[in-house]
Amino acid sequence: MCFPVFLSSCSGEFNKVYKSTDKAYKYEYAKECFAKGKFDNSIALLQDIVTYFKGTDNAQESLYLLGMAQFSNRDYESASETFRKYYSTYPKSDLAENASFYIGESLFMSVPEPRLDQTLTISAMNAYQQFMDNFPESKLRKAAEDKLFKLQDNLVEKEYLSAKLYYDLGGYFLNCTTGGSNYEACIITSQNALKEYPYSDKRELFSLLIMKSKFELARQSVEAKREDRYRDAEDECYGFINEYPDSKDVELAHKYIERCKKELRN
Predict the structure, then answer these.
(1) What is the gyration radius of the CA atoms in the chain, in angstroms?
(2) What is the pTM of this model?
(3) pLDDT score recorded for residue 173
(4) Which residue, 164, 128, 175, is CA-closest to 148?
């Protein structure tokens, strides 16, 4: 570590190496910087020499080391691009397996919270899946699978938050630009999520939103649609009770059933 009193000398040494025309010397210094955790310096030197090393014995190692330096420096976007370049250039090399894995790792580290756009999440999932397809016996497979499940949880959470938002908006019709209702949007979003992620731990929550939305949809329906929608809501309640007999919301389902029956008798 360079303390303040030695800052100028440390900076001076790096500048001297950076300006050097001795590529081998710069490469050794870049590896030394990487080992000491000086990733900015390592990256600067490696970016300057990887093109020069193309076609030489150091080409593969220097490009892979650049990716690792970028990853360690939390520049995940650049790291994913470097590892992708490495894998496409050297798919049969000894480090190809690790490079393929780190494409997914770099994207994983860039994934935003579930409320935000999940394009990167899907890219990371595709990268991990491609890694497992290409290296089915890899010792890193379990780590890739675990990350894949976590990323899928992000997508499920995104869908749940969207469905919950539709339900919470309820009768706020200004939000319904397509002529439908928020409750219908909640039902469709939840049903699609159940089909897409049948083993999600949020299955009961999606089912609850469907049940509640169908009841509210019936309650707020025009006369011509009310009977069919109350019957549909009643069927949904029975389905919820059968699938989740121990749920804390079974009592709510029974209340809905009684309300539906009462409305259908009138």
Answers:
(1) 28
(2) 0.83
(3) 59
(4) 128
